[in-house]
């Protein structure tokens, strides 16, 4: 009986020791796997892996407050955070001055958003001052504007483009050309805000707009 008890105790100790060893082994294995996964996640992406989403667009005007009111009232954008007024004398190491360089000394920026999370920044450059289109003298949309290169319009989606175009005109904007009906029945047209910035108004999202 004593030998049997001793044998059971030894077996119990053997099982406990091996269980502890197995537990330690699996913990170490899990740690190695976690570390390996972390290392893979920290590896720089190859150019083939990079996928972009549209983030925001920026526009410059001579009157920030007026532009914020126009875009919120007319196109239904919303303010995300309060506007910022940045002055190099007060914050020489401010982010905007590190990006724009030594020529910029003072600027106001408003941060608006569309319903689909796309951002819309409005800039009023104070020093040096804005010298683009104004309400009194809007930027022209002509052959020179089309051919000078670079971005020359943004586009928004609205269920009733004609209704929005009329609202734009009532709010001080301008109609550009005629509306067009595409082969798939969707509608597109161009308008300008009071500063002359060009906005295309489409009745459907881009993929739907260009496919039948």
UniProtKB/TrEMBL annotation:
<dbReference type="GO" id="GO:0046872">
    <property type="term" value="F:metal ion binding"/>
</dbReference>
<protein>
    <submittedName>
        <fullName>Glyoxalase/Bleomycin resistance protein/Dihydroxybiphenyl dioxygenase</fullName>
    </submittedName>
</protein>
<dbReference type="InterPro" id="IPR004360">
    <property type="entry name" value="Glyas_Fos-R_dOase_dom"/>
</dbReference>
<keyword id="KW-0479">Metal-binding</keyword>
<keyword id="KW-0560">Oxidoreductase</keyword>
<dbReference type="InterPro" id="IPR051785">
    <property type="entry name" value="MMCE/EMCE_epimerase"/>
</dbReference>
<feature type="domain" description="VOC">
    <location>
        <begin position="53"/>
        <end position="204"/>
    </location>
</feature>
<dbReference type="Pfam" id="PF00903">
    <property type="entry name" value="Glyoxalase"/>
</dbReference>
<dbReference type="GO" id="GO:0051213">
    <property type="term" value="F:dioxygenase activity"/>
</dbReference>
<dbReference type="InterPro" id="IPR029068">
    <property type="entry name" value="Glyas_Bleomycin-R_OHBP_Dase"/>
</dbReference>
<dbReference type="GO" id="GO:0004493">
    <property type="term" value="F:methylmalonyl-CoA epimerase activity"/>
</dbReference>
<dbReference type="GO" id="GO:0046491">
    <property type="term" value="P:L-methylmalonyl-CoA metabolic process"/>
</dbReference>
<keyword id="KW-0223">Dioxygenase</keyword>
<dbReference type="InterPro" id="IPR037523">
    <property type="entry name" value="VOC_core"/>
</dbReference>
């Amino acid at each position: 009986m004593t030998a049997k008890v001793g044998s059971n105790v030894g077996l119990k100790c053997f099982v406990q020791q091996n269980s502890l060893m197995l537990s330690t082994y699996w913990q170490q294995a899990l740690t190695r796997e976690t570390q390996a996964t972390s290392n893979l996640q920290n590896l720089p992406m190859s150019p083939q892996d990079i996928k972009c989403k549209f983030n925001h667009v920026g526009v410059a005007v001579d009157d920030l407050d007026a532009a914020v009111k126009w875009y919120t009232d007319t196109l239904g954008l919303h303010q995300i955070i309060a506007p910022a007024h940045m002055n190099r004398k007060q914050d020489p190491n401010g982010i905007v001055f590190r990006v724009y360089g030594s020529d910029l000394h003072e600027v106001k920026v408003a941060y608006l958003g569309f319903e689909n999370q796309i951002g819309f920044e409005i800039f009023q450059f104070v020093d040096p001052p804005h010298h683009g289109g104004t309400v009194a003298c809007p930027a022209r949309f002509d052959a020179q504007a089309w051919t000078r290169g670079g971005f020359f319009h943004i586009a928004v989606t609205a269920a009733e483009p004609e209704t929005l175009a009329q609202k734009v005109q009532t709010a001080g904007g301008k109609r550009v050309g005629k509306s067009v009906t595409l082969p798939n029945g969707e509608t597109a047209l161009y308008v300008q805000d009071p500063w002359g910035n060009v906005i295309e108004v489409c009745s459907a999202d881009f993929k739907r707009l260009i496919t039948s």
